[in-house]
Amino acid sequence: MNYFKKIIRFALPYKTYGILNIICNIFYALFSGLSFMVLMPLLEVLFKKDAVKITEKPTYNGFTEFADYFSDSLNYYISDLAGSDASKALTFVIVLIISVFFLKNLFNYLAMYFITFLRNGVLKDLRNALYDKTLELPISFYSEKRKGDILARFGTDVLEIQHSFLSILELLFREPLTIIFTIAFMLTISVKLTIFVFIFIPVSGFIISLIGKSLKRKSDKVQSEQGTFLSILEETLGGLKVIKSYNSEGSFASKFQNSTSRFFKFSNSLLNRTNLAKPTSEFLGIAVIGVLLWFGGQMVLVDGTLKGEQFLTFMGLAYNILTPAKAISKASYSVKKGNAAAERVLEILNTQSPLGDKEHAKSKETFDSEIAIDNIAFKYEDDFVLKDFTLKVPKGKSVALVGQSGSGKSTIANLVTRFYDVNNGTISIDGENIKDLKKASLRGLMGLVTQDSILFNDSVKNNILLGKKDATDDEVMEALKIANAWEFVKNLPKGIETNIGDAGGKLSGGQKQRLSIARAVLKNPPIMILDEATSALDTESERLVQVALENMMKNRTSIVIAHRLSTIQNADQIVVMSKGKIAEQGTHSELITKNGVYKKLVEMQSFD
Questions:
Q1: What's the structural domain count of the chain?
Q2: What does pTM read for this prediction?
Q3: Do residues 43 and 312 lie in contact, with contact meaning Cβ atoms separated by under 8 Å?
Q4: Digit-coded pLDDT (tens) for 69-106
Q5: Do residues 112 and 257 both lie within one domain?
Q6: CATH number at residue 66
Q7: Dist. CA 322–CA 334, nearest whole Å
């Protein structure tokens, strides 16, 4: 129950439905007990046709005599209404029984009706909170997690919590109340027989509880393994070309089958343990009923301390305890399974983002002078990627970062956009440390175009509108023209309304990249960061994209991370990086004159 105390806050907005559910459950429990009590006058009408009718209104003589009082009162009213006509008496009793059962089932439906809103509301809010947290957590968090495991927490884990909430409400209100009301009615019939029942029910409950002790651990294994095979599936879909080209279908199929085999084994263990609960509880319940038949039968036939119709009603009430008792045992199993799911969901929800905005973080709307990277050091894990790195990017200037793979170029882009925080040193904009600015405000000043064109399964227009939500169609088309993308977009079946498929799969690499640039153009930020925006393109596409980039960077502050040096020769400053440090810097002509690292890189690419 520990984790559900933390989950319960998601049910608070729907507490009205919870209260209505409890009220309906109280009435359900009451009528559930009464449905057996009203059988007594029916049994008297059927089996005691010649019984003396009660002509005087009965008096109440205490709780333990309530059954007699209840039966005699009904008998009195039946006698008054039906007189000596047995068929009328029978009709009255049957109408009474039908009415009680109708009310019992009506309140049962209403209880389930109201709980539905609470359950589905919790489901909706949990998923929304998980999604918000997914967006909030830093990119580094997902480098350590399997995507399939995250998807499993959104799906099956949240559903498990939803079903467990229903079980908890049954556990706390409906079923215990049914048992309490039923026992109260049983006490009115025979205190001695009820005490006898109390001896056997705890024994049964203890035996059933032994079965469920390991359910949380087993459930946790099932849910974790589900995350594993979903991750393998997600990786397979993303890398299908590579898998097929290397004839690796067999090894990936083997990996997936190993995971589903473990899932098969864990699921069998969990379900077999869960399924043991029902037959065990039913057998123990029938055993209790059997003992009651013997003991109660003695009281009717030998001692004469109990009437036959009272004993039959008592047996019905005793059986009425079995259904909620079984439901409680089932609910307790469900809670144990749900506890494992809640633990996995809360692991995400309780993770604090190290990149959260400070309490009094500032908003910055304009970029006025320069970006200053001052003596920073950074590491992703153990080894520093950047050390003692210092750079200034004046407003309106373009600065290019070049160097071999692993020299730390893309890390600069990740740090300036605050996808990660520096370990030492500071990065500031117009003298303001970016850690003191709101992330949304900081990123609002920047446009990012990456090597991998990240597009979404939507229309061209909606992909471009990420840069400016309220842009008109004319503004979208103008951005596409600047990015050299209009020439192919205008020929698409529905123009800017054409869906481009999953990750833009209906477009070529060059087309996707030009849409990414158009998105940045529409945003029109004062600072542009281009992370190897042309390195994955063919020569023709690169030429078109390069023209688009030059159009976009006019009179704009730019940090350009380049692999192909031919694309950055016109930069105001070129910074050559090596092993996380600046090896040399200057303009293209100055660096060629120095005859250093940059010139060697240019010569290596001269055949391009």
A1: 2
A2: 0.70
A3: yes
A4: 666 666 666 665 555 566 776 777 788 888 888 999 99
A5: yes
A6: 1.20.1560.10
A7: 18
